[in-house]
Amino acid sequence: MKQHLNARVVKPAITPEYILARHSTMIRRIAERLRKLIRAAAPEAMEAAYPGWHAIGYRHPDCGYFCGLFPFDDHVKLVFEFGVLLDDPFHVLEGDGKQVRHIVYRNVKEVQAQPIDFLIEQAIRLRVRKRRVKGNG
Questions:
Q1: Where are the beta strands (DSSP E) in the chain?
Q2: What pLDDT, on a 0 to 100 scale, did the predictor assign at position 134?
Q3: How far apart are CA 23 and CA 56, in angstroms?
Q4: Among residues 57, 70, 53, which one has the least CA distance to residue 105?
Q5: Which domains does the chain have, with CATH numbers?
Q6: More exposed terminus of the chain, fewer Cβ within 10 Å: N or C?
Q7: Residue 11 has what pLDDT?
Q8: Contact present, 82 and 88 (Cβ < 8 Å)
Q9: Mean pLDDT across the stretch 65-85?
Q10: Is residue 35 a contact partner of residue 48, using CB atoms and an 8 Å limit?
Q11: What is the DSSP secondary-structure string of 38-58?
Q12: Is the CB of residue 84 less than 8 Å from the CB of residue 100?
């Protein structure tokens, strides 16, 4: 009697560290500082690696995806999914698309907590409101 093994190949989980591993020390430092600030501003958010986008994304239990980190060879972008709708009193957001806005960081000294905290709090509130309106409509 032949036994069949139902063996599944389990791929190792791709981590944020894996996404950052091939980058320079400076890019990793920028990303780590941003990760720390995002976790402090939104401790309930889940962090996940998105290898297809070569990014680290953040999902909040009440609002879903709200921001992501995109490391490049010479900078890191902090991207806000609905950035076009965010108030930007610090004048840090860039982009001219219909929805997304981003901040470009080329060194760790550029990473300041106050604008990031403000934008993350606002992005989460905005997405929660959008979900409530969509759910009630």
A1: 46-50, 55-60, 64-71, 76-80, 101-105
A2: 59
A3: 14
A4: 70
A5: 16-136 (3.90.1150)
A6: N
A7: 66
A8: no
A9: 97
A10: no
A11: HHHH-TTPEEEEETTTTEEEE
A12: yes
Q: Report pTM.
A: 0.85
> How many Å apart are CA 5 and CA 90, to the nearest integer?
59
Q: What SS3 state is found at 7?
A: coil
Cβ neighbours of residue 18 closer than 8 Å, sequence gap 6 or more = 49, 51
Q: Which residue do the tokens 């000294």 mark? A: 109
Q: pLDDT per residue over 39-63, tens digit each?
A: 999 999 999 999 999 999 999 999 8
34 closest CA partner among 130, 106, 95: 106
DSSP assignment of 61-130 equals: TTTEEEEEEEE-SS-EEEEETTGGGS--TT---B--SSS-EEEEESSGGG--HHHHHHHHHHHHHHHHHH
- Between CA 130 and CA 134 the distance in angstroms is 6
Q: How confident is the model at residue 132 (pLDDT cuts 50, 70, 90)?
A: low
**Would you give the distance in Å from CA 22 to the centre of its chain?**
18
pLDDT of the residue at 13: 82
User: 104: helix, coil or strand?
Assistant: strand
